[in-house]
Design a protein that fits this description.
The chain is built from twelve helices and eleven strands. Strands 3, 4, 5, 6, 9, 10 and 11 form a seven-stranded mixed β-sheet that branches. A two-stranded antiparallel ribbon has the order 1-2. Strands 7-8 form a two-stranded parallel ribbon. The mean pLDDT is about 90.
Length: about 300
C-alpha cells in the first residue's frame, strides 16, 4: 500500500469526486482514477460508491479513512521534522474560537508575524470540539479552546481566563425580571453550532434556571448573535471582554453570573506526541511573552 495512494484516496474522500481531488493534488484526473483503482484492487473491495453527483465512501472506505489521515499526517510531520533547522519558518496552522480570534488574538498574531515573518501563519475558527479534533488529527498545529479538556493525546497551556456573562436586550435590567416575564419554557438562546463550549455552559445555566427546553437558534457569526440579542430575539452567554469590545455593546445588557459558570479558562492545546517544530515553539514563546499566558 503506497503512501501516495492513501493521500489520493483521502483527497477524493475530502473533495467528494475525482475532478476536485485532481485539482487539489495538482495532477490529472486519470492519475487519480488509476491510483484509486489500484488501491481498491490491492484491498479487494470498493472504497467509493460512484454516482452522478460524485463519490461517497463505502463502509470499507470509512474504515480506511482515519488510518489514511493518520499516515498522511505522520508523513508530513516527519518531513517537517527533517527540514527543521532551528529557524522559525514554513506553515503554522492555528485554530481558535471565534470569540478568541475576534478579541484576544489580533495583538498576539501581529507580534508573532513581526518577529517571525518567514512563518506562513494561518488561522481557522470553529467550536471547541471541532478544533480539538483538528489538533488530534494534526490538521492544526495548535488551537485556542475553552477548558477544561482531558484527552490523553493533548497537552495544554492556560492562555488566559475569562468571565462569562449572560447577555440580554437592554430592557431586561435584572435576571429576576427576565425570569418573571418570559414563558415557562424560557427565553430563546442564541448560540453557535454544536460543539461550542459556551453553548454547553449556556444550556446548563438555562437548565438550572428551570428552562431545560428553551428554544435554540444557531448562528455562524459573533456579530449576528450580539445583534439579535440587542433586538431582543433571545439571550446568549459570552466572555465579558468580547461583549464589551463589540460595536453593539451599548445595545445589550450584561448580567454577572454566579457559581461555576462564571469563570472559564481558554487553553492553547497541541498534540502531545507530535514533533514540536521551531515555528510552534516560537509561537508558544510569543504567547508567554505577550502576557496572555498565565500558566504553563
Amino acid at each position: 500500500m503506497e503512501l501516495s495512494d492513501l493521500k489520493t484516496f483521502a483527497a477524493v474522500a475530502r473533495c467528494g469526486g475525482i475532478t476536485r481531488a485532481a485539482g487539489e493534488l495538482n495532477t490529472v484526473q486519470s492519475n487519480v482514477t488509476n491510483r484509486i483503482r489500484a488501491l481498491e484492487t490491492e484491498i479487494g473491495t470498493p472504497l467509493f460508491e460512484r454516482h452522478a453527483r460524485g463519490m461517497t465512501l463505502t463502509d470499507a472506505g470509512r474504515r480506511l479513512l482515519p488510518y489514511a489521515d493518520r499516515l498522511n499526517a505522520l508523513s508530513n510531520e516527519a518531513l517537517a521534522a527533517a527540514r527543521d533547522d532551528g529557524v522559525a519558518k514554513g506553515p503554522l496552522a492555528i485554530g481558535a474560537m471565534e470569540t478568541t480570534a475576534a478579541v484576544r488574538l489580533p495583538p498576539l498574531l501581529a507580534q508573532f508575524h513581526q518577529r517571525h515573518p518567514e512563518v506562513q501563519l494561518s488561522l481557522r475558527t470553529g467550536p471547541t470540539a471541532m478544533l480539538a479534533e483538528a489538533v488530534i488529527t494534526s490538521t492544526l498545529d495548535g488551537a485556542f479552546i475553552a477548558g477544561p479538556i482531558d484527552h490523553p493525546d493533548l497537552m495544554s497551556t492556560v492562555a488566559f481566563k475569562e468571565e462569562l456573562v449572560l447577555l440580554t436586550a437592554r430592557r431586561w435590567k435584572t435576571l429576576a425580571a427576565l425570569r418573571a416575564r418570559t414563558p415557562a419554557s424560557g427565553p430563546t438562546i442564541l448560540v453557535f453550532r454544536t460543539g461550542c463550549s459556551y453553548r454547553q455552559r449556556l444550556e446548563q445555566l438555562m437548565s438550572e434556571l428551570g428552562w431545560p427546553t428553551a428554544a435554540r437558534l444557531e448562528f455562524g457569526t459573533l456579530d449576528g448573535i450580539i445583534g439579535c440579542v440587542a433586538a431582543d430575539m433571545g439571550v446568549t452567554a459570552l466572555p465579558r471582554a468580547v461583549a464589551e469590545r463589540s460595536d453593539q455593546a451599548g445595545m445589550v445588557r450584561m448580567h454577572t453570573l454566579n457559581g461555576p459558570h462564571r469563570r472559564v479558562e481558554t487553553l492553547f492545546i497541541r498534540r502531545r506526541a507530535a514533533h514540536e517544530g521551531t515555528a510552534l515553539r516560537s509561537f508558544l514563546a510569543c504567547l508567554r511573552l505577550s502576557g496572555l499566558s498565565v500558566a504553563a
